[in-house]
C-alpha cells in the first residue's frame, strides 16, 4: 500500500498550502480558490477532474502584457494582492460594482493601497463601508502573516 504524507493546517488550509508551495514542499496546489493568487502560490491547478486540470503559474499572471485583458506590466506582488482583495476575497467581500477588471484598473491607476483606498473613499460611483480601509489592511495582514506548520522542522512558523 502507498504511504500518503499529510499535514493538518493549524489555522487555514489556503495559507498552509501556499506556504508549502512557496517553500517547494509541494509542487502544485489543486484548488478552486482564486485566493491562491493573493497568497502568491507559484503553481495552482484549477478545475481538477481527477485526470486533468488547468495549471496557472503566478509568474505567467505577473508577466501578462498589453495583449491580455489584464495588463500586469509593472505590477508588483503588493499590487496583485491589493487587486485580489479589492475584487473580493475570503477576508473581505468585494465593494459593490468592483470586479477583477475594475480592481485591476484602480490598482493600475493608484499603484497601491494608500492612494487606492483614498480614491475609493471619495468615489461617487461606489458605496464603500466606513470600516473598509481598516478591513482592507486587516485582509493584507491576514494574507501575509498567517502562522502555518512547517513539516520539515515540525513546528509553527510565521
TrEMBL record:
Hydrolase is among the record's keywords: yes
Gene3D superfamilies: 5' to 3' exonuclease, C-terminal subdomain, 5'-nuclease
Keyword field contains Nuclease: yes
Compartments in which it is found: Nucleus
Record's keyword terms, sorted: DNA damage, DNA repair, Hydrolase, Magnesium, Metal-binding, Nuclease, Nucleus
MF-aspect GO terms: 5'-3' DNA exonuclease activity; 5'-flap endonuclease activity; DNA binding; metal ion binding
Any one GO BP annotation for this protein: DNA repair
One CC-aspect GO term: nucleus
Protein name: XPG-I domain-containing protein
